[in-house]
User: Fold this.
Amino acid sequence: MKYFNRRYIMAVTAATSLIVSVSGAFAAGPIKVAGIYTVPVEQQWVSRIHKAALTAEARGDIEYTFSENVSNTDYARVMREYAEAGNTLIVGEVFGAEQEAREVASDYPGVSFLMGSSFKEDASLKNFSVFDNYIQDASYLSGIIAGAMSESGNIGMVGGFPIPEVNRLMHAFMAGAREMNPNIEFQVSFIGSWFDPPKAKETAFAMIENGVDVLYAERFGVSDAAQEKGILAIGNVIDTQGDYPNTVVASAIWNFEPTLDAAISAVQAGTFMAADYGIYSFMKQGGTELAPLGTFDGKVPAAAMKLVAKRQAEIKSGAFSVTINDDEPS
Assistant:
């Protein structure tokens, strides 16, 4: 693992990979993969991509390098640097640099790009695939638990931006909560940042003053507020119960491994093409799961846990589908 033209450079010792183009030959060794992130790798969403890449590197499938805290205005330049450096697969998130990122990809047809995006793939740009964290299945299940744990019937939700990948998780969570209480009310707010824990915390404090007794922590900082005020929180993307053992009841986990592994296999086989990898985030694909209740095991009402078990089995079998609603919640 190394930082490329960023904080510092660490030497990586690994077998030299055979560079594979989108239509190229089979790769005999590990492929070179670069990650480009606009936030620190500790941030929830990006941490899951980073974790999957480290896992693939530990298996010997890839050589992995990454840059973090890359601004949207600098994103295209960093993409070009990694492409010129011989990376076969470039992974990242281009929500704020969609057009520029696709222009770069068109200039490097021999490099495969797998990018988090609010838009779909373009068949004319064969080396650019998209993904998103479609973890609405687990978000819905966590909502069932939240609805059962809320005594006031008032739940607060703090998000980063009202974009599809956040909106769909909130709607799924709300639908789950309404399974337990059809009359439940929600306070929804967006802080306008992907990583501003102090702002998220202050927003959560305001909701607590307005009567919420459960908080949906889509952003870091929300669970801190819940812990300080002695109310409950529901996590998103990662499991933070270890840090908040008496606060975080449940979390919807995103497993990026199925997404990245599918892309690596396609690059190795020379079959990578424009596609939507979002399906690999579904529960049926192993892309999402409900975190263990841990310290809250036995504390969630039995009726809620019975419904969670029922719906989870139905989701995996295909008998039940969580509605995907990308509209901004209110």
Confidence is low (pLDDT under 50) at residues 1-27.
